[in-house]
Amino acid sequence: MRCKFIAIGDVHADFELLWEALRAASCMDAAGLPTPPVLNGTFQVVLIGDLVHPKSEREYARLIGRPSFDAQDPEQLFLAARAQVRQLERLRRYQQAAPASVHIILGNHDDVVINAGYLLGTAGGLVHIEFDPNRGGILLPPDLKAWFQSFLRELRVGRLQFAHVGPLPSMTHYDDLFYADHTHKRWWHEHPEYVQMSGLSYGVYGHTQIKDGIMVNSTNRFAMIDALTAREYLEVLVDTEAREPLVSSRPVPF
């Protein structure tokens, strides 16, 4: 059976852009629900992880409808959390309407929301604490937490892999060793051979934003797709009955 995988990079709370991508790929209808090709499995949707935490103060401000954002203001933290919860509930309705065709990978930002302890932030000093009650935020609602806990560490179709960070098993668990090792941010250009060394025919990964949109490494057979803000998703054509399921892949602008 041939089917099309629509792989979308890190969301980081830019849900409006996510909805645009899904609609452009004919995966979401006007009611925000899966289209017939998604419902019947002809189209498979893969979200590569990191649903939460806007990437910048500007994006936080836009999320809460304020001219600026202060991570030390409890009211603004609450507004940021509430806005994300509303959109996460909408995404959950979408995913649960076609659970066999909509796959969500657990990103490290998603993991820290349900397993508090690590403080994530940016090089510019922004910290993501809206879902950390120990730092002034709120807990993710229990029903959404249970949903997050159901997310995949990876998705495999034969030797085709979708994962948040990279091809190695150690890159799917976000513990002290993960955060102490910077390989997860640099492997794709320092050790691109990791994909084939892992016995994979092709890999699709996020986590590391590439400046000019989706990066396809044809030689080492992988794609880095943290490119939602560049308005691109990856289209992967797969033959699920073939020994090597990958037929083709290409970045698609929307």
From TrEMBL:
Residues covered by the Calcineurin-like phosphoesterase domain? 4-193
Name of this protein: Metallophosphoesterase
UniProt xrefs under InterPro entries: Calcineurin-like_PHP, Metallo-depent_PP-like
Q: Which Pfam families match?
A: Metallophos (PF00149)
